[in-house]
Amino acid sequence: MGCLYPHATLFNPSGGGTIISAYEVPGQLSVEYLLSGVKQLSHPELREFIEKLTEWQKQRKAAKESELLGVIQANSQLPEKEHRRYRELWRKCEDGTLSEVERVEYQALLNQLEVRNAKRIEALILLAQLRGKTLPEVTTEVGTKEGSVRSEHIPAALRWRVQ
């Protein structure tokens, strides 16, 4: 695709003979099409375009970071009630006093943790890519929420399920 294509030429109805051109824009805007339009800009217009594009990119990045931080926060630990129950069952498991029914419940909570950890880690990876940093750097920046369940809180016999 080349330049912008005039679709129709209209005369200014208020007089003065000024011509207003309307341009047909293709349904799918390709990079080449957009670049052909940018190439037609004067230097001041190009500077303004770049400033506005840069500002838009910053806003878009900030919105994506906010979304990812929300996912990380939401998946950093179980809801309070489930977290308390998890800690209770964890202690019983460590003591060797977990009943079969409790073991099933504990296993279900571990499965929830596994899903939450996967979502949190995926969001951390995306955030690291967005910021151009390593995963350990972003993890340190974001920090861990106090009281969140970490692998050292899981009995060794079951630890493989959440690592």
Overall description:
The structure is a single chain. Mean pLDDT is 80; it is low at 1-12 and 145-163. Strands 1-2 form a two-stranded antiparallel ribbon. Helices cover 59% and strands 8% of the residues. By secondary structure, the chain is mainly α. It is elongated. Helix 2 packs antiparallel against helix 4. It has helices at 31-38, 43-74, 80-95, 100-131, 135-142, and strands at residues 5-11, 19-24. A hairpin with a 7-residue loop joins strand 1 and strand 2 (19-24).
How would you briefly describe this protein structure?
The protein is built from 5 helices and 2 strands; from the N terminus they run ββααααα. It has 163 residues and is mostly helical.
For the terminal residues, how far apart are their CA atoms? 51 Å
Computed Rg: 28 Å
Which strand order does the major sheet show?
A: 1-2
Helical content stands at 55-70%
Main sheet properties: 2 strands, antiparallel
Q: Strand percentage, roughly?
A: 5-15%
What is the mean pLDDT? 80
Oligomeric state of this protein: single chain
Q: What is the β-strand count?
A: 2
Task: Report the principal-axis shape.
Answer: elongated
SSE succession: EEHHHHH
Number of helical stretches of at least 4 residues: 5
Structural class: mainly alpha
Q: What is this structure's SSE topology?
A:
Blueprint: E1 5-11, E2 19-24, H1 31-38, H2 43-74, H3 80-95, H4 100-131, H5 135-142
Antiparallel strand pairs: 1-2
